[in-house]
Design a protein that fits this description.
Elements (H helix, E strand, L loop, with lengths): L1 H7 L2 H22 L6 H21 L3 H12 L5 H28 L8 H35 L2 H13 L1 H6 L2 H16 L1 H20 L7 H20 L8
Helix pairs in contact: 2-3, 2-11, 4-5, 5-6, 6-9, 6-10, 7-9, 10-11
Length: about 250
């Protein structure tokens, strides 16, 4: 109960709870779609999914300003790669929220003369670009971690030991590739925040890919990926040390 109160007291936590419920409903609807005895349950899940989506749009009002303010801070980062990736990501995130706010305004009747489909596709495009930039940042962070570990003498000794112990694998796999995979595994194990952020962004990426028709999947895949990324987001809220910085 304390955990639930801690999450629900944060606006981002409420959004994550709504999002997890929304995509859980999407996944369950897909799994039950062919069961004639579950038609009433499927209709209830669809209604709950729509309500969760509408509730999240309301919670996200004002997030455009927050994203732009964050971009103003990241533009001063000393690292040029992080500076570029994070600043552009937050700008695109802000534009995504702007499109989302316009769609919410149309839903409640505040705005009528707009092309909802066009605004929805634009929102998906901005979301897609944001995720690509976030994954670029993750790849950069991972490359930095791997390079740092590769220079460590203790790690070099462990790599040699690993290759000697796995000589049968090394005969099949190129030793350099085996060593790189070992370094990657050790780096991510020592830096779970980077691993969680990468996994979360990969899961999220399937959503705009499907919406834009770049890589069509189905409601089950979208629901599963959305649920997984939402749960990972909740983990980082409960354990701030697992949230990637900056």
């Amino acid at each position: 109960m304390d955990t639930f109160v801690k999450i629900s007291n944060q606006s981002q936590g409420r959004d994550r709870l709504f999002r997890a419920t929304q995509y859980a409903c999407s996944l369950l609807r897909y799994l039950l779609r062919n069961d004639p005895e579950k038609k009433k349950l499927v209709a209830t899940l669809q209604s709950l999914e729509s309500n969760m989506s509408a509730g999240r749009k309301l919670l996200r009002l004002g997030n455009t300003v927050s994203a732009i303010e964050t971009a103003k801070r990241t533009i001063h980062l000393a690292d040029p790669v992080l500076n570029l990736c994070l600043t552009l990501a937050h700008i695109n995130r802000g534009l995504y929220f702007l499109c989302d706010n316009v769609l919410w305004a149309r839903t409640v009747g505040l705005v009528k003369d707009i092309d909802a489909e066009r605004w929805s596709r634009n929102a998906s495009r901005f979301y897609f670009v944001t995720l690509v930039l976030n994954l670029t940042r993750d790849a950069y962070e991972i490359s930095q971690l791997v390079a740092q570990r590769a220079r460590d003498k203790h790690t070099q000794e462990r790599i040699r030991q690993h290759l000697n112990e796995s000589h049968q694998v090394a005969e099949v796999v190129v030793p350099q590739l085996d060593a790189l995979l070992f370094l990657l595994q050790e780096s991510l194990r020592a830096n779970p925040a980077v691993a969680l952020d990468t996994l979360k962004n990969i899961c999220d990426l399937f959503i705009p890919l499907n919406q834009l028709g770049i890589y069509k999947t189905n409601g089950g895949v979208v629901g599963f990926c959305g649920l997984m990324s939402s749960l990972l987001g909740l983990v980082t809220l409960l354990q701030p040390s697992l949230k990637i910085k900056p």
